[in-house]
């Protein structure tokens, strides 16, 4: 049977070659390199032909507290060794390590849920629809460079302190990880008491994250979309969000089904199943 082990710094080039063969995702390596403990939480076959990595992350539990979760990422098997059970065995090894690491449960986001037999899918509520047409905003939003995103930290923390599944972002997260996710073509736009991370995606306004004064921010986004001739949008906002009419003329209820969770030392259900649960793209693993 193929041997399994944790990765070592000397595996760096082999890991990057494996991911290049499996992913068309240029963010994978830069994100991985922000984690100083990455090699000890990267599990590989002896020849580095398959890999599973996890990142410990503190998440808000929706009650004002925090939960430690293990975020699974960079799961890969070279095309030449697929179907041999390597990923399944590596996932089991990672789950054991998460338990020893004090992770209450494991979290991942994927477009291939069939790979993760021990994880259970969950849904996050999102919306889409035609945008409200409006005149110029009373106060326009200003662009914040992604490298200066930490100026938004206080607004983020107030907005998400009791929002289930949102990440507890430390200084390193704001400095190192958020600019990778929210660099160009994403725009960070801030008002007096709120902000949004948006992408103008093929004539569609895609609101990736929003916090603070939602009526003010969404009204300003509606004005900007009108000025750009953008008529439709989508947003990671829950169905019951009262500020939705400030951006949308009407709302279509959507579901993001990419999330999966697995109990390790506790039950993820109350957090991932909450109606107002949210996980912003800048917090993916």
Question: How would you concisely characterize the structure shown here?
Answer:
With 285 residues, the chain is an alpha+beta fold.
Task: Describe the protein.
- The protein is an alpha+beta fold and 285 residues long.
- It folds into two domains: 4-124 and 257-279, Aminopeptidase (3-Layer(aba) Sandwich); 127-255, 3-Layer(aba) Sandwich (Aminopeptidase), CATH 3.40.630.
- The chain is 24% helix and 30% strand.
- It has seven helices and twelve strands.
- The chain has helices spanning 12-22, 28-32, 86-100, 153-160, 171-181, 214-228, 269-272; strands at residues 4-6, 42-45, 50-60, 66-77, 105-109, 120-130, 142-144, 187-190, 194-201, 204-212, 232-235, 252-263.
- The chain has a twelve-stranded mixed β-sheet.
- It is elongated, with a radius of gyration of 20 Å.
- The mean pLDDT is 96.
Strand and helix layout:
Elements: E1 4-6, H1 12-22, H2 28-32, E2 42-45, E3 50-60, E4 66-77, H3 86-100, E5 105-109, E6 120-130, E7 142-144, H4 153-160, H5 171-181, E8 187-190, E9 194-201, E10 204-212, H6 214-228, E11 232-235, E12 252-263, H7 269-272
Parallel strand pairs: 4-5, 10-11
Antiparallel strand pairs: 1-2, 2-3, 3-4, 5-12, 6-11, 6-12, 7-8, 8-9, 9-10
Second rung of CATH, namely the architecture of the largest domain: 3-Layer(aba) Sandwich
How many beta-strand elements?
Answer: 12
Give the uncertain stretches in residue-range form: none
- Assembly level: single chain
Helical content stands at 10-25%
Strand line-up of the largest beta sheet: 1-2-3-4-5-12-6-11-10-9-8-7
Shape call: elongated
Mean pLDDT: 96
CATH topology of the largest domain: Aminopeptidase
CATH superfamily of the largest domain: Gcn5-related N-acetyltransferase (GNAT)
**What is the count of distinct domains?**
2
């Amino acid at each position: 049977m193929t041997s399994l082990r944790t990765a070592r710094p000397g595996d760096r080039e082999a890991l990057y070659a494996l991911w290049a063969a499996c992913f068309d995702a240029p963010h994978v390596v830069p994100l991985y390199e922000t984690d100083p403990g990455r090699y000890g939480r990267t599990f590989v076959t002896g020849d580095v032909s398959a890999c599973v990595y996890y990142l410990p992350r503190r998440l808000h539990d929706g009650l004002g507290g925090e939960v430690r979760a293990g975020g699974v990422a960079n799961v890969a098997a070279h095309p030449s060794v697929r179907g041999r059970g390597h990923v399944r065995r590596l996932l089991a090894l990672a789950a054991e390590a998460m338990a020893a690491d004090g992770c209450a449960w494991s979290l991942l986001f994927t477009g291939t849920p069939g790979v993760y037999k021990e994880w259970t899918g969950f849904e996050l509520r999102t919306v889409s629809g035609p945008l409200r047409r409006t005149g110029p905003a009373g106060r326009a939003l200003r662009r914040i460079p992604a490298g200066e995103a930490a100026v938004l930290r206080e607004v983020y923390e107030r907005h998400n302190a009791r929002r289930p599944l949102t990440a507890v972002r430390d200084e390193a997260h704001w400095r190192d990880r958020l600019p990778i996710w929210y660099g160009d073509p994403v725009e960070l736009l801030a008002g007096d008491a709120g902000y949004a991370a948006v992408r103008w995606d093929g004539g569609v306004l895609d609101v990736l994250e929003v916090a603070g004064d939602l009526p003010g921010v969404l009204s300003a986004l509606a004005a900007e979309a009108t000025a750009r001739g953008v008529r439709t949008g989508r947003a990671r906002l829950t169905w019951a969000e009262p500020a939705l009419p400030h951006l949308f003329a009407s709302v279509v209820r959507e579901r993001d089904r990419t999330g999966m969770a697995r109990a390790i030392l506790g039950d993820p259900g109350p957090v991932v199943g909450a109606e107002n649960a949210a996980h912003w793209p800048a917090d993916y693993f």
